[in-house]
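task queued by scheduler; priority normal; single chain, no ligands, no partner chains; default sampling; output format set to C-alpha cells
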Amino acid sequence: MYYKLSKTIEKLYPFYVSEERKTVIEPLIEYIQNRLKNKQQININFICTHNSRRSLLAQVWAQTASTYFNVPNVSCYSGGTEETALFPIIAETLVRQGFRVFKISEGSNPIQAIKYSDNDFPIIGFSKKHNDPFNPISDFAAVMTCSQADDECPFIARAEKRILITFDDPKDSDFTPEQQTVYDQRSLQIATEMFYVFSKINL
C-alpha cells in the first residue's frame, strides 16, 4: 500500500470500537466468515440514499481492509436509492488520507479510479442506484449505511442478507469551517470499523 495510506492505517484503532458498535457490525463479520468458510465469493454492496458520501467511503475502506488482512475473494460495491454524483470532498478526503484518485470520465457524475497501491486493481467510484448493472445482481450483502436508505429501500432484490450499519452524515458540515475536519473524522470512523470487521475474519 502507498506509504501515506499505510501511515493513516497505523493510526487506526480497530480494537477500540465500542461494544455497541461491535454489536451493530457483527452481522457483517458473520456474513463474510460464512461465505469464506464455504469458499464462496464475498460481494458487499454499501447503500445510502445518494451514493455520494458514506456508502462510497465504506466501499473504499472495506475493499482496502480486505486486502490489508489478505481476505480473499472480496468485491465491494456501493449504490443508492438515487443517482447523483460523488461529492468532491470525498475524493479530497481520500487523497489526504493516502489514496490516489484519478478521474477517468467527466460529466455531471464523473467516474473516479481510487487506488490504494500501484499493483492492485483500482476501486471504481461513482454514484449509481443500488441495482445498477455495475453492481452484483445476486449473492451479495446489502449494507445500509444511512437510515434514510434503509427506510426507502424496504426490499433489495436478490440480496442474500441485509445489514444495517449507519453512519452520521458529514453533509451537515458542507461549506462550513468544520467541513474538512468532519469529513476526515467520518472517513476515519468508517475506516476503523471496516478494519475491525476484517481483522476478525479467520482465514
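post-processing summary
- The first strand starts at residue 42 and ends at 48.
- The two ends are 21 Å apart (CA to CA).
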